[in-house]
Amino acid sequence: MAYANCSLRVDRQLLDPSFESYRLSLDSIPCYNVELDAAVAEVKLKDSQYTLDHMKAFGMYNYLHIDPWYEESVYFVDCKGRVLSLTVTLDTALGKPREMFRMTPEPSSCAGERVCASLSLTSATWAALSDGVGNLTLLRTSKRGESPHIKWEPMFSECLGEPFTILHSLSHVQAGVHTIDLLLLRIQKDPADAKGSGFCTSLEWITVGKNEKNKKRRLMKGRSVPHYAALEPQGKGLMVASERPFSFKEVDGVPLEEAAAEDMEVERSEPIYFWQQTEEDVTVCVRLPEGTTKDDIRFKLSVDCLCVGVRDYAPLLKGQLFAPVDPEASVWTIKDDKSLEVSLQKRSEGPLWSELVLGDRKGEYIMNEEQAAQLHLRLAHLTAEELNPNPEKDKPPCNAQELEDCDGFPEDSSTLMRFDGATLKPTHVVNLGSHQYLFTVDINPSEMPAFCLRHDVDALLWQPQPEQPNDLWKHTATFNALGYVQASKRDKKFATCAPNFSYAALAECLRRVFIYRQPSPVDTVLFNRKQGRQVGQVAKQQVASVESSDPVLGFRATNERLFVLTRNNLFILKVNN
C-alpha cells in the first residue's frame, strides 16, 4: 500500500520574526506544598535495564497525570499501590490526596522484572491502570469532576505478559459495543539484534470490548522508543513519531506476511535515473526495462511529490520533491524505448536543488560545465593550498567541543507516521529531519494529544487532526525562542505548556522550574534604543524553586497552575490568576 510523503505546514501568522528575547521578571510565584503520607512509587532502573531506550522509557517517566476532562485534578501512584487524586479549588486550602483505588497485591512486593506503574485517563468516566509487573486493570471512575469522593470500580483485569507502561488510551462505542483501545510500551530482549543493544521496542495496540471475543491485539516493533505515540478517535488509526520507523508484526499472535511489491528488473549496478537542472527547470531521465510502452507508465505528479513506475511493479522513483514544481507546466516522454524523460518546471526560479527526491539515493546528478565553474568560483575564497593557513598552526580551525548544546541537532532523522487501523499500513509519513521533539500535551480531551517540535529557534505546537487527511497536522501555537532556550538547560527533565498556550515551562531534575510567558502588552512606555522604536509587548521569563532535595518525578500544567511532584511532596505553583 502506497503512502503519502507529507510535510508540516507552518502557519506564518503564528510566527513572530521581530521577537527579541525573554525579560527576566522578579515577580514571585506563589508555591504551595502538600506533604505525602507515603512516597511516590518510583522504580529505579536495574543493571539489566542499561540501554538508552530504558532510560527514555522508564528513567524519564512522568509519574504525575493530569485530568484533561476536569482541570486542576492530578493523579499519581504511591508505594502502597494506591492511586491518589488531588483536586485544587483554593490554593490556600489544599487537602490531602484522596485514595481512588488500591492495587492488590502491592506492585513493590512482586518479584521479577518491574517498571513504573502507569495510569491513563481514558474518558470522563473510565481509566486504565498498569501495575508495572504486567497486569492491566480497566476502572470505571464515574464522572470524576462531579463525584471526586467515589472510589473507582475495577471492571476488567488481566495479565498481559511482560511489564509495560500505558502510553495512551481512549473509549468509544463501536457497533453498539462499548470499546476501549490502549497503546502499551515494552522494551524487550531481541536475540536477533546481536550487533546492537540486544533490545527492541514494542508497541501493542489492544482493543477490549464487553467480553473476550471482542479483544484484539496488534503488535508493532521498532528500534527506538517513540517520541510520540497516540491512537486516533474511534480507533481508526495510530500516529507514531520516532527516530527509527515502526511496523506492525503480529495480529492476535499471528505474524503478518511481508507483502512487499515485486521490484522491477532494472540493472542496479548503475543509477536508476539521472537528473540535471537550470534555474528554471529540472530534467529527469529514468531508465526503463526493454519493451516498455507509454501505456505501461504509471506517472503521478503533484506540487511537491513525484511517482514514476511501470505497470504494477514497485515505483522506480517516488517521494517528496526538494522544492515545489508546477504540475501543469511539467511533461514526460519516452526516449528510444529505453528511458523516460521528465521535465519539471520549478515554481520558484533561482535556487538550485541539492537533491531531486528527499532521501532518495538511486539517482545521479549531472552538473554542466557552466554550473561547475560558477560553483568553484563561489567556493574559491574558502580554499587554500594548506589545510590550516593560520599563523598559529597549532590551533585547529574548528573545535567541535566548543559548540554549545543548543547548536546541535539529533543525529538520527526522525519520522512521523500515520498507520491505518484497518490495514495496519502507513498512509502518511513526515520526515522530521532536525526538528527536535520537545514534549507532548493534552489540549482538548476530544482530540489527540498535541506534540511540540523545535523549528529553528522556536518551538511549534502541532495538533493532529485525523478527520482531515490532506492536512493531518495543524500548527496551533508558537513559543518564541523556546527551542533554543530549552537546549541550553542541560539539567532539563520535563517540558510542557498550558492548554491555552499562555506559557511554556521547563523543570530541571532538581528544584528549579522555568516559566516562559507569551508576549503581553506593557503598562509603561518602553523604548528600544538600538532600533529606535517603542516596544509594545514584552515576553517574561520567571524562575521558581521548590523546597525539596528529592528529584522531580512529575510535571504537569494547567492554565492557572504548575504541578511538581517529588518523592515525598506535591508542589503547586500559581502561575496565572
Automatic annotation (TrEMBL):
Subcellular location: Cytoplasm; Nucleus
Pfam families assigned to the protein according to its UniProt record, in alphabetical order: CS
Recorded superkingdom: Eukaryota
Gene3D superfamilies: 2.60.40.790
Main localization, broad class: cytoplasm
Record domain CS: where: 268-357
Keywords linked to the UniProt accession: Cytoplasm, Nucleus
GO CC terms in record: cytoplasm; nucleus
Signal peptide extent: none
Keyword Nucleus found: yes
Record-given protein name: NudC domain-containing protein 1
Gene behind this protein: NUDCD1
